[in-house]
Amino acid sequence: MLGNAMRQVDLRRPEAGNWALILLVVQNSALVMVMHHSRNGPTEQGTRYLASTAVLLVEAIKLLFSLVFATYDIRKSHPSSSASHIATLLRRSVFAPDSWKLILPAALYTLQNSLVYAAISNLDAVTFQVTYQLKILTTVLFSILLLGTSISSRQWLSLVLLTFGVALVQVAGPLGSESWKDRLTSLIQGDLLLEAFEAPAPGAVKGLLAVLSAAVISGLTCVYFEKLVKDSLATVSLWTRNVQLSFFSLFPALFVGVLWQDGAAIARDGFFAGYKPIVWITIALQAIGGLIVAVCIAYAGNVAKNFAASLSIVVSYTATAILFGTPMTLAATGGAATVLLAMYLYHGRSMSRTSLLPTSKERVSEKASKAIFQVLPPSR
Ligand code: C5P
Asked: Matching NCBIfam families, A to Z (predicted)?
């Protein structure tokens, strides 16, 4: 029964995964710029909004939307049920006995989101983007450690190329502030890290530690969430899982972030101190991003999700060049080509399929496929 349902889900929804990946490319391109500006741009009367309030609001918005989608799913499978029966079914599915399994990822994602704010407040956008891409590698490492996934040498090569290509686009592209040669040399020699530790710009060490920790947590949490969702997709919908995730995230976001960490400041200045349109745009983009990430993880897989995030850097680079006429450097264009080559290599055999990005079935070796998706039929 589980096998049939999984098969149905998998065959019905591949396009959902593809659309989510495309949306993620767009969302990711916008988020880092907007978020960086919201944390570092000019403020009114010197008051900057508190990251903890934004983290809480993002979770509340995601909870609301996930509830709507979960209700829609239940309505679809029980078309003749009354509203109160649907509410009962929803409550039962959200507070099912296994809902506690979402407590850990909820706590970790809340921590990750707070770390991302800390990192972006203390680092320039380029350093943040390059370093955060380490989540590509941490995701694969946790897949190997926790799920027994095995990666072919060709896929390893593609992951290294991907990381290298992303770094090159970032440091050599128009978004890099210094001369790209200086920056690349610093990056290769490790001077960027040394600089941060030896003669740190205010908060640089904090920013680097925050982004490195966020990359590690991202890898661990998304692997855990993917396994959890896919193991139970036949019986628990993705949106129910997301309601559970956001619900449990509210507690650390409220008690640890808002009350414990920033309680005094909020009591003094108010919850919405420093809020202006760019802050609301950041919050909306993050909430939408979280929902898109959920669909990506469930229907396309984590590695595909990370490939999409990397592709967004190439898209930003190309779009800035086309729209604003910023010069394209040879090195950054080479980096963009390297990202595309890495995607081709990872994807393997064919570029003629509907998705350019690797699907969840392609991303694991046969051994891991057996472990995680025992019930799926061969992909072709
Ligand atoms: O950078 P990364 O891809 O790990 O980001 C994951 C983001 O997506 C986090 O902000 C997390 O809160 C959000 N997310 C979500 N719902 C999920 C999975 C992740 O909102 N089911």
From this structure: nst
pLDDT at 119 over 70: yes
pTM of the model as a whole: 0.81
Task: Give me ligand 1 centre to Cα 293, in Å.
Answer: 6
Q: How far is 118 from 50, CA to CA, in rounded Å?
A: 11
- Residue 338's Cβ-side half-sphere holds a number of Cα atoms within 13 Å equal to 21
Q: Work out the percent of the chain whose per-residue pLDDT is above 70.
A: 80
Task: List helix spans (H) across 174-301.
Answer: 180-189, 191-198, 204-232, 238-251, 263-269, 277-299
In this structure, which residue's CA is closest to atom 20 in ligand 1?
Answer: 290
Pairwise CA distance, residues 271 & 277, whole Å: 15
Residue 227 to residue 233: CA distance in whole angstroms: 10
In 3D, which of 38, 186, 195 has the Cα closest to residue 120? Answer: 38
Q: Is the CB of 109 under 6 A from ligand 1?
A: yes
pLDDT-based confidence at residue 148 (cuts at 50, 70, 90): confident
202: pLDDT confidence band, cut at 50, 70 and 90?
low
Is the Cβ–Cβ distance between 373 and 230 less than 8 Å?
yes
Q: Which residues contact 249 (CB under 8 A, 6 or more apart)?
A: 59, 106, 107, 109, 110
Ramachandran class of 270: left when φ > 0, alpha when ψ lies in -120 to 50, beta otherwise: left
